[in-house]
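In keeping with the milestone schedule agreed at the kick-off meeting, the structural modelling team has produced records for the first pair of proteins. Each record is given below as a sequence line and a structure-token line. The laboratory manager (R.T.) confirmed that both were archived under the project's standard naming scheme.
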Amino acid sequence: MGTTSVRMPGTGDGTSTASGKAISGALWVVQILLAFVFAYAGWTKMVKTGAELRATIPWITDVASPMVRGIGICEFLGAIGLILPAATRIRPRLTPIAATGLTTVMTLAVAFHLYRGDDSMIVVPSILAVASAVVAWGRFRKAPIVERGG
């Protein structure tokens, strides 16, 4: 006898148990917090001038301007991907994919700071990498969002 996932009204995910709802709720909280952080960081890297960025972000001097803009674009689009597909339930598989991409970006940031000898600079990207990885795992495995009409 197989089990069937029951979609709870209004949740859009396949969770039908109290623990499933709690996991989904916790994932939503983390997704929203991450989206705010990455949207702000990405937007800043996309719109501020090189001089403005150098004044606030020390590692900018070691990275080409197009790469900084590219990182900003990845962070900003990742922030959108954490929320929009899941909230609209249109292609919700893009949400854990976005979280995986952000995990990759933050893992590379940790490696970059270790390479530069900025050991104190790895705390924030490490936390963001772990949080993004948790969202990816949670939305791929524990509480995936069901596509609209699915």
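The second protein of the pair:
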Amino acid sequence: MEPYYIIEILPALVANALPVLFGGGPALDGGLKFNDGRPVLGSHKTIRGAIVGIVGGAVMGLILSLWRPKFAAQGLLMGVGAMVGDALGSFIKRRLGIAEGKWTPLVDELPFFYAALLFASPLLPAGIFEPLNLVALSVLVIVLHEGTNYLVGRLR
């Protein structure tokens, strides 16, 4: 794996982390229930959290654009993708009857990352999608995600 691939995914990592710190407020799904009677996403996915995540990814992209201009657009796309993927993960968890806030291996870590890659794919280097690179980056995302969650939990 090329070391700069880590820089390529920074906007997604920032977008996913910030709602934990700065989210809250009204639920993104407006409190609606799906046809199974469970919340569509749940109260932990908030409008403010989604906005903070998208803006955070975009700001990280702007910072990185000082190095390479393409990062400005990539950061925004990754921020949006990360929030869509995170919401998808919550949707899946609610369908499986998993309570909000309950850790669910892989579902908590990977949908945001893969959706961010998908949304920004036209701007990403092709090599990032090679199977070994995707596996290495996925493992890195899992380790960083769990490490960050542990630290935030300890700080609270």
